[in-house]
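Hey, quick one: can you model this chain's 3D structure?
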Amino acid sequence: MSDQTSDRHTSGDTRASVSTHVLDTSAGRPAAAIGVELSARASPDAAWSVHARAATDADGRCTGLPALPADTTHARLRFDVGPHLAAASGRAGGADGSAFFPEVTVAFAVSAGEHYHLPLLLNPFGYSVYRGS
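Sure thing. Here's the predicted structure for all 133 residues.
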């Protein structure tokens, strides 16, 4: 358990929290400077509200996202992967040199007091996301 998660539980904060990291599986290394947007909503039919924006660090991690609002039932991560993929030599997917996947978006259900770590495994023509620890 991370210090951030431990501190949250001992302080009585029962809001859900989110962290992520991005690994470029084609290069076999972390993907730095990927823009990440965290959104939240309070019910399945509610509109999404942007909660935070950040970028992955040199290790591909984005750990400083703030805890979600107390009424959050769903969260969404949007990764701006286009610039990273288009800049990688020989891996452009569009006719104009743009990335085949300009962004990756994943929505997931959350429960109060839980921590959600969602790694993104990225390559030029595919990706995978899972709940990590």
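One thing worth noting: Strands lie at 17-24, 29-30, 35-41, 49-55, 61-62, 74-80, 104-109, 115-123, 126-129.
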